[in-house]
Amino acid sequence: MSSTRAAVRHAPAHSLPAANRVSVVIPAFNEGDHIAETVAQLNRVFREAGLENAEVIVVDDGSHDETAERAESAGARLVRHPHNAGYGRSLKDGITSAGNDTIVIADADGTYPLDAIPRLLEEYAKGFDMVVGARTGNTYQGPFGKRLLRVILKFLVEFTAGRNVPDVNSGLRVFSRATAQSFFPHLSEGFSFTTSMTLAYMMNSKFVTYLQVPYYERVGQTKVRLFRDSLRTLQFIIEAIVYFNPIKIFLLISLICLVLMLLALAIGFATEIGGLVVIGAGLGVCVVLVFCLGLLAVLLKQIMDTNRRSSAE
């Protein structure tokens, strides 16, 4: 097995010592029909792995059913929102309330194999900052529209991070509470939480690795709105680029302008349409200006980073 920062790898299953203290955070919105089963399954996994000190935290995100009552009856510690605040906000509140530094996040809908958690924890113990379950199987692939959006988002994230990212927004992952909290101001409070987390870790040179896990059909109705949530994810990707590595967004815009400039000039000279030549010249000016703005953004970021380090000292 290689030890690259973002490679898909398989890990052997081993029991973990009971001394390991783990908090599993499960966001839940109207998951009353199966939340008790999820909590019970987690407790079984903990017993079999020797994780006697592990805790399950269910964040009831303003549910209208009996999610909170059934989760608490099953033995979970409960965090409640008075109204629906979003997937990311639920995870942030659950992480903040956790009694242990080692955090596992998973979903309440039966899509992730909870018995894979010990494998992820074992990999995390090797010194990684975050271990992510990379989803596989036909259920994960989904319809064409979903696959297309996933390819676009994957390209943008990999372009931004400069690394291979097997699964951009998997909701099964292990990380440190303290490290995650340091990135909270930059993490989405909605569906894009995991994508923004992936970017924050990778663009700050954290060690991230992936283990393949199966992905199952969800139980109940999905809360995800594909088009709306994809647009919000795109927004957070752009914000992450601007904050962590601004030159990349300016380089991308410059490259687009350069391609359009070359096309306009080529067609303009070939067809002797003067207007296209003028447009091409204007796009050439845009290429230079956008690139210079990118250099200025990098300089400002370096100044901000220097001031931040000085303040910390």
What share of residues is helical?
40-55%
Distance between the termini: 39 Å
Q: Whole-number average pLDDT?
A: 85
Number of helices: 11
Q: Mind telling me which CATH architecture of the largest domain this is?
A: Alpha-Beta Complex
Structural class: alpha/beta
CATH topology of the largest domain: Spore Coat Polysaccharide Biosynthesis Protein SpsA, Chain A
- Residue stretches low in confidence (pLDDT < 50, at least 5 long) are 1-15
Number of separate strands: 8
Globally, the shape reads elongated
Strand order within the widest sheet? 1-8-6-7-5-2-3-4
What is the H-and-E element order?
A: EEHEHEHEHEHHEHHEHHH
Number of domains: 2
Tell me the strand percentage band: 5-15%
CATH class of the largest domain: Alpha Beta
Radius of gyration: 23 Å
**What is the CATH superfamily label of the largest domain?**
Spore Coat Polysaccharide Biosynthesis Protein SpsA, Chain A
| Major sheet summary line | 8 strands, mixed
